[in-house]
Structure formats: C-alpha cells, structure tokens
Please model this.
Amino acid sequence: MTRDLRRLCAALLCVPLIACVQGCPPRDGTARDDRRPPDSGERAADGAASGGEVRGLDPSPVLSRTDMGNGLVIEDLKPGEGDPVWPGGVVRAHIRGWAVANAKMFDDTYAKDKPVDIGLRNAIKGIAEGVPGMRTGGKRRLHIPPHMGYMFTTIRGENDEVLVPQASPLIIEIEILEIRPARFVTSEDSSVTDRPKDSPPRR
Model:
C-alpha cells in the first residue's frame, strides 16, 4: 500500500469518530441545544406575539384550578352562593380583561363602576365555557386561548388604539353579581366579551 493510500484510509476512518464526538452530549450530563434561541419578538406557537408581564391581577389565592383540556384554564378565586350559572345563561357581572400579547388591560368595569350583562350564548367561547357553574358572589380567573377569544379579530379603542391584538391569549377575571333572565340583555348591554360580529354562531 502506497503512502498516499495509507493517508487516505486514515482520514476516512477519522470522519465517523469526529461526527460521533460532535454529536455526543457533554460529559457533565447537560443537554446540548445548538438551535437558534428565539428572538424577543418571535411569535408564539398559538400565533400571537409574546408580550410582557400582565399586571393588576387579583392577588387572592387560587382556591382551585381546572384545565379544561382545550386550552381554557379556570381558576376559582372566590366561592359564590345559590344556584349555579347554566350554559347559555345570563349574568350581571364585573369583569377585568387583559390581552396577553401586549400585557394591556382592555376592560375594567370596576373602574367604570358599571357592571355589564353578559349573555353566554353571545359571548366569546372562553367566557361561554368558563362561566357556567359559577354562583352569585363568586369570582373566577379565566385563561383563554386565542381560538376561544378573538382569533381573527383585532379589538380597537379610542383613537384606533389596539386593545386586543388579533390571536392574543386573554385573561379575564369575572365576578358574578346576579344571575339574570334572558330578557335583561339588550343591545345597550353588549360588552367587549361579546362574540365578534363576523364569528359564526356556536352549534
């Protein structure tokens, strides 16, 4: 075997060894991740841009936490009394709402001292499925995924300010003041929790 041929064979034998060394985990047991870290402005898996920290949440301890399995998470902050709210019912309530994408509070009926009547049949899906079971005087925090909120709608306020970016997860705190008959809900009672006009009705 010539000298050049011996060198070629030695070089070919080294290639698998180098590849193995590069692919093996470090000896200290830590995992290697050579993937590019996400940019601060990269969009989250649910399609909404990641935002800052949401501030102003009710500091009350969470009494119970229920993951509904569809992205909706229900946290009970205060028990209520009396009969429960039924699916499709009507409630008079105080709400606070935040858009997670921009960490902005978009509604606060406490500050306005103006509770709203919410018909669950016309509410966004996160409200419609997160409120039933509550009782008068009870309070919940709802973590609502984009597909149960405003997936394809941007909510704007005064001066065309974006309050809720399209496809943003939501956090809604709701306190039930009264369970009401359906006849109490009128067009003037509509609130930001209503289902967007262009959304198809739920079946």
